[in-house]
Amino acid sequence: MTSKVSSPTEQADEAVVGEQRKPPGAKDVRRLDRVIIRFAGDSGDGMQLTGDRFTSETASFGNDLSTLPNFPAEIRAPAGTLPGVSSFQLHFADHDILTPGDAPNVLVAMNPAALKANIADVPRGAEIIVNTDEFTKRAMQKVGYATSPLEDGSLDGYNVHPVPLTTMTVEALKDFELSRKEAERSKNMFALGLLSWMYHRPTEGTEKFLRTKFAKKPDIAAANLAAFRAGWNFGETTEDFAVSYEVAPASKAFPTGTYRNISGNLALSYGLVAASQQADLPLYLGSYPITPASDILHELSKHKNFGVRTFQAEDEIAGIGAALGAAFGGSLAVTTTSGPGVALKSETIGLAVSLELPLLVIDIQRGGPSTGLPTKTEQADLLQAMYGRNGEAPVPIVAPRTPADCFDAAMEAARIALTYRTPVLLLSDGYLANGSEPWRIPETDELPDLRVQFAQGPNHTLDDGTEVFWPYKRDPGTLARPWAVPGTPGLEHRIGGIEKQDGSGNISYDPANHDFMVRTRQAKIDGIDVPDLEVDDPTAGTDTAATTLVLGWGSTYGPITAAVRRLRTAGEHIAQAHLRHLNPFPRNLGAVLGRYDKVVIPEMNLGQLATLVRARYLVDAHSYNQVNGMPFKAEQLATALKEAIDG
């Protein structure tokens, strides 16, 4: 979905309820500036599809939005159990927002497990829509309810709407030749229709989507459409929902342009394709499926028309080996994985460092250690990216900060890899990969020129006057070696993991040469041109200048920025900076850190960036850490940062 919006503004991330109005013959309509909705049910209830469709219609309407899908680690956890609960949270607003929200204003609970797993996050006074058909004695006992929460008074502080979703869906589809089990599967569309009425969402996109998705099963398509419309009509006619809500488009939230809703993995995929086009190189992906990185393989496999070639290998090692071979052959080479896969790829990353070939290693971080929590998010691979290879094998590290920013981060990683002839690690994570937000589609003339010049002939003259090709003769500005495509006459050279002689590339065991090559490879990474770190500090240079800096990296950007906004709205003075380049660090980072009395670094790990900062700059950086598989909440961070300011 795309939509046009105009000039930017910044507003505090706070909800405002407008006046009620009631057109003749209609229900009350209340205007809100933002809403947080969470759909929750069994992993087979279609909560991700329901949330995705609501998100798509919200994007087409022009709201700013941020999403948080959350699903079980198991492929199919036992039905009706707490480990089997799948949820999708959407935060949408009439102004720019940064996070999926801390606490839902509306919870749609499809069964007792969904209610119990999510009720702790729901504030008093919020709306709860429950599917009463699923609140059987057996289902409630399965999750530890001794009595029905719908009857024992435990939900008295909430606005509870008991709706027999299953029964009403089956009734709406009684004229279709479907079994009861088949009809029940459409209850998520009934719920989507109800919420679409409740928040005045467009319906045309969802109806078109259902016709397309079930084009080969027209009876199923018709049934889902009927359930969706029945949910809308139920909201329109029932007395239980006396109020509907409007959230105006975010007409002032963004620069003028054409926007679409995009997830981090999709943005990353598009960034890789764009980089290959800007470099005028074929894109090659060698990959092995692993959650949450697999979607990049799925997406890139659709773009053969752009010269993209995807290879699903038998394991992680084969995937990166094929990618490195493609890099040697002159392609923009990529391999995708998550933390456990990075460990398996580490030897070949070291080989790429030794060969000095451009290679993009995309790590969509997830909970660990070992195979860990495949569907949960974490930032715990930073030290592995920095040091996780044998010997001295420095690798540049780039980290996107939002789902849409994954596009730009992919372009930047490609720039570094191609310019400096080096593998580059890009650290995204599960939160960015699966979350979504509006993305302004760039014009092609806004994209950087990434074209490279392959070696064409001899580049060195021997003492006897013979002209030869030296594969490790370096560009004096970048220290990059030439990129020679195999098959080019006269440019044959050795490859392999054994140390090379400077210049000639011959095998060398000379201690002095090894020392020189190690230091040269490090100097090449240290010399990479990265922008200076920008600091958001409105009080800089004033008598009341902030003395506390909050420094972040990766996906903590949204929660940190939302927390900083809240503190500034409350009158606090605090500075913020966010790192995209983690190796090398921006050249001004030390100077920035030195301007503040306190530096706080929130991370979804046990303090990995803080460890690097303390070691490199001898700054007493304070860690604020969380490793529960979920992103930070803005209120949680605001409280921690306020304590740091006051401490």
Overall description:
- The protein has 647 residues and is an alpha/beta fold.
- It has 20 helices and 26 strands.
- A seven-stranded mixed β-sheet has the order 13-12-14-15-17-16-24, with helices on both faces. Strands 5-6-4-7-8-9 form a six-stranded mixed β-sheet, with helices on both faces. Strands 21-23-22-25-26 form a five-stranded mixed β-sheet, sandwiched between helices.
- Helix 4 crosses helix 6.
- The radius of gyration is 27 Å and the shape is globular.
- Residues 1-21 have low confidence and may be disordered.
What's the gyration radius in Å? 27 Å
Task: Provide the helix percentage.
Answer: 25-40%
- The helix tally amounts to 20
Distance linking N and C termini: 47 Å
Shape: globular
Widest β-sheet, arrangement of strands:
13-12-14-15-17-16-24
β-strand amount: 15-25%
Overall SS class: alpha/beta
Largest sheet: 7 strands, mixed
- The residue ranges in which pLDDT falls below 50 over 5 or more consecutive positions are 1-21
Strand segment tally? 26
Average the pLDDT over all residues and give the rounded result: 94
Short description:
By secondary structure, this protein is of the alpha/beta class. It is built from 20 helices and 26 strands.
Give the tags:
647 residues, single chain, seven-stranded mixed sheet, 26 strands, alpha/beta, disordered N terminus, 20 helices, six-stranded mixed sheet
What's the SSE blueprint?
Blueprint: E1 2-5, E2 17-21, E3 28-32, E4 34-42, H1 47-61, E5 64-70, E6 85-93, E7 106-109, H2 112-118, E8 127-131, H3 137-142, E9 159-163, H4 165-172, H5 180-184, H6 187-198, H7 204-213, H8 218-237, E10 243-247, E11 257-263, H9 264-279, E12 283-287, H10 294-300, E13 308-312, H11 316-328, E14 332-337, H12 339-355, E15 359-365, H13 382-387, E16 397-398, H14 405-420, E17 423-429, H15 430-434, E18 436-440, E19 460-461, E20 467-468, H16 511-526, E21 535-536, E22 548-553, H17 557-569, E23 575-579, E24 581-583, H18 589-594, E25 598-603, H19 608-617, E26 622-625, H20 634-646
Parallel strand pairs: 3-10, 4-7, 7-8, 8-9, 12-13, 12-14, 14-15, 15-17, 16-17, 22-23, 22-25, 25-26
Antiparallel strand pairs: 1-11, 2-3, 4-6, 5-6, 11-18, 16-24, 19-20, 21-23
Helix pairs in contact: 1-6, 4-6, 6-8, 7-8, 9-10, 9-14, 11-12, 17-20
